[in-house]
Amino acid sequence: MGNNQLEPDLEAGNQSSLLKQSSHPVCLIFHFLFRIGAICTYFFGTWFTDNFVLIFVLCVLMLVFDFWTVKNVSGRLLVGLRWWSENKEDGTTTWLFESRDPSRPLNPVDSRLFWTGLYVAPAVWVVFGVLCILTFKLKWLLIVAVALALNFANVIGYTQCDKDAKQKWATGFASNMLGGSGAGGIMGGLMSRGITRMAGSMF
């Protein structure tokens, strides 16, 4: 996750170069589009309208679009990871993880920007939340709460998915070195899957 390095000729802020070196430039754009749109609408919305309800609706729509895009599209294409959850009858939530074939290398640009966007966005919303409290604009905390809930859902999901994938790859590599049969499903061309139980439901 953090070990991937950008190619030497990349220059900071050179967006055209980043998109050219990305394996999925359109996906990379949409990975940032909705979250930046939500942040800009929240921060600059009052410049154009005093209607809080309108700003709230626009922000929530973009946050939902962002959540769906990151969870179902950009994570799978940019870093080869996917997560989802299933609620059980006993009230617990089962998290399901899917990861790419480890023999398929990641594009370092896609990987670095995916994780950067994943972690920076909730940090920005945390700052907005603190400012709301300090300035007593408590109604704006409604937008911040929705943003943090959706953003942290993806942060936790992908962090656990990445951890699960690394454990499976390490286990598969060790089994392969020892000549065990457990490496076949991981070192082959199939997707590896992991199931982790977590108490309570996030949604």
What does this structure look like?
- This protein has a 3-stranded antiparallel beta sheet with strand order 1-2-3.
- The N terminus and C terminus are likely disordered.
- It is mainly alpha-helical and 203 residues long.
- Helices cover 60% and strands 10% of the residues.
- It is globular.
- The chain has one domain.
Please describe the structure with a list of short key phrases separated by commas or semicolons.
203 residues; disordered N terminus; globular; 6 helices; mainly alpha; 3 strands
State the gist of this model.
The chain is mostly helical and 203 residues long.
Count of distinct structural domains: 1
Overall helicity = 55-70%
Secondary-structure element sequence? HHHEEHHHE
The overall strand count is 3
Structural class: mainly alpha
How would you sum up the major sheet?
Answer: 3 strands, antiparallel
How far is it from the N-terminal to the C-terminal residue, by CA? Answer: 26 Å
Q: What integer is the average pLDDT? A: 78
The main sheet orders its strands as 1-2-3
Radius of gyration of CA atoms, rounded to a whole number: 19 Å
Which consecutive residue ranges, at least 5 long each, have pLDDT under 50? Answer: 1-13, 180-203
Counting copies of identical and different chains, the oligomeric state is single chain
- Please report the number of helical segments: 6
Strand content: 5-15%
What does the overall shape look like? Answer: globular
Organism: Linnemannia gamsii
Subcellular location: Golgi apparatus membrane; Membrane
Membrane topology: Multi-pass membrane protein
Keywords: Golgi apparatus, Membrane, Transmembrane, Transmembrane helix
